[in-house]
Fold:
Amino acid sequence: MNSIREKIADIQHAIWSHWMKYLFSVCVKNDDGSYTIPIDQAERWERQMWMSYEALSEKERDSDREEADKVLKVIQKFLK
Structure:
């Protein structure tokens, strides 16, 4: 069980890392080293974070499904 846990933790870190790279790529780096999120991105992400999965658009759910598929691949390997 520890092996599958570690593999899923590894995938979760990769998902988080990918998100952070994307987040920083769309933000504006300020002279003091801080970042500013553009208003259109901030409004969209704030809207999404307060919505249930079922209330998301099909495109938004597809994005979450792609991330879920990464975890499912690991689980499927351990079920075989």
Summary: The helical segments are 2-26, 39-49, 58-79. Residues 2-79 form one domain.
